[in-house]
Amino acid sequence: MNRENGIVIRAEVPETIVVISPEVMTEISTVMHTLAGVQQVTSVEVCEGAAPTYKAGSLLLAQIEKERKAVKAPLLAAGKMVDQAAKDATEKLAAEVNRVGTLIGMFQAEQKRKAEEAKRAEEERLRRAARINPEESVRSFEDAAALAPKSAGPIPAVPTGTGVAMQKIKYLIIEDETKIPREYLVPDEGRILNAMKSGAEVPGCRIGIREIPKRTGR
Predict the structure, then answer these.
(1) Along the 218 residues of the chain, how does pLDDT read in single tens digits?
(2) 206: Cβ–Cβ under 8 A, 6 or more apart, which residues?
(3) What pTM does this model have?
(4) Count of other CB atoms within 10 angstroms of residue 210
(5) Of 30, 119, 129, 210, whose CB count within 10 A is highest?
């Protein structure tokens, strides 16, 4: 919202110039001149001579202070009216702004929590994956099916009574995740393996060999 100026509240107060009357300024100058002559009070005579001027100065100060308060009182009242008008106009708006701000803050905090939770889950997944020993022996056909990478395809069922031999297949070994190009993150092992089979070099990865059961006939 644009405005030509920043005035949103206009107080109907005429322009006022505040001055001290020449008579009072002359009186102030006279009293100050007399007071300046009092440098020390060392005798009863000096004390009695300085007392009237001291009293005159004190009365003059009290008079000016009294008139200051009287002149300022309407301005203070006007200031309070300005404050109240602004409060009445903006109180509900401020409450709504604070309410929506709270909702936004709660949503952003929840999004941050979810992002951090997802990050921790991914880090845990990578730590678990790093603990898997790809060279570990496959003890059964079921273990082989569970551990074989997707790119290697399903392990065919071996009918009862058939001969079984071990077949060598290629699978992916991630040696250093920090060297893997961004386009392969989170690592798509099937895609990386196929690319490396075609001759591509993927930093941080190498092709490993694992033996799996293979049907050889009756």
Answers:
(1) 444 444 344 455 556 666 788 888 888 899 999 899 889 999 999 899 899 989 999 998 998 888 888 888 888 888 888 888 888 888 888 888 889 888 998 998 899 899 988 888 888 888 777 665 444 444 444 444 454 444 444 445 444 444 556 777 777 788 887 787 777 667 678 888 888 888 888 888 888 887 777 666 55
(2) 173, 175, 196
(3) 0.37
(4) 21
(5) 210
169 - beta bridge partners?
210
Residue found under tokens 């001290």: 20
Closest by CA position to 125, among listed 209, 189, 181: 189
Q: What's the CA dihedral at 11, 15, 21, 24 to 10 degrees?
A: 30
Distances (CA, A) of 9 to 82, 86, 90, 118: 7, 8, 12, 51
Residue among 11, 18, 8 nearest 78 (CA): 11
DSSP 52-77: HHHHHHHHHHHHHHHHHHHHHHHHHH
User: How do strand 205-217 and strand 163-174 relate by DSSP bridges?
Assistant: antiparallel
